[in-house]
Design brief:
Elements: H1 20-37, H2 43-62
Helix pairs in contact: 1-2
């Protein structure tokens, strides 16, 4: 875990170990996003986007 203390008004960063297959998928999506947009999103942003997409797909198939 990151032992650095966040400054006031910032969110502390958290380091979490991931299974290799999940980390590979996130990194591939991160690289794709960088090619498309020109900037490198954080792993948290990539993960959030993928989770939202998965939830939308689940909701669409359930309806």
């Amino acid at each position: 875990m990151n032992s650095a203390k966040p400054t006031e008004g910032t969110t502390p960063k958290l380091t979490v170990p991931l299974p290799a297959d999940l980390a590979a998928k996130l990194e591939a999506e991160r690289q794709r996003a960088e090619r498309v947009s020109g900037y490198r999103p954080s792993m948290a942003q990539v993960g959030e986007r993928l989770l939202r997409r998965a939830l939308e797909n689940t909701a669409a198939t359930a309806a």
